[in-house]
Amino acid sequence: MDIRFNISQKVDNLEVLLPWFLFCLGSGYQEVVELVDARVLTKIGRMKFIRPLYNAINRMDHSQAVSLFERNRGLYHPIAVAQISKDLRVGLGGIDTTA
Fold first, then answer.
1. pLDDT category, 99, cuts 50, 70, 90?
2. Where do the H-state alpha helices sit in the chain?
3. Rounded CA gap, 92 and 49, in Å?
4. Helix 62-72 and helix 78-88, axial crossing angle in degrees, nearest 10
5. Interval 41-76: pLDDT, tens
6. Which residue has the higher pLDDT, 73 or 94?
7. pTM of the predicted model, to two decimals?
8. Would you put residue 94 in left (φ > 0), alpha (ψ -120 to 50) or beta?
């Protein structure tokens, strides 16, 4: 569907884009992760949008989710950082606490 309608690139409304990205990630569409990072994770800091995306990426690939979060965490409010750190089981100082 994304190839046919180009939703990931054409739609700018995050209320529409979030469910679409979550659907893509839930379907294992790995190619969309780069777009999610470029269009949302590096531009939007609102936890309503970023937390479910990190959780969906985490279900696909924990190390990729942690890597993206570590790169972008400075863009987010401390409350968002704390909540997403818990979700990803990453310490607030950036230390992986999954072991």
1. very low
2. 2-5, 7-10, 14-26, 32-36, 47-60, 62-72, 78-88
3. 20
4. 160
5. 999 999 999 999 999 999 999 999 999 999 999 999
6. 73
7. 0.87
8. left
Instruction: Quote the distance between the C-alpha of residue 59 and its chain's center.
Output: 11
Both tokens of residue 29?
């569409």
Q: Are 20 and 7 in contact (CB under 8 A)?
A: yes
Best CA proximity match to 37, nearest among 69, 10, 77: 69
Q: Which two tokens stand for residue 56?
A: 């969906």
Rounded to the nearest 10 degrees, what angle do helices 47-60 and 14-26 cross at? 10
Distance, C-alpha 95 to centroid of its chain:
19
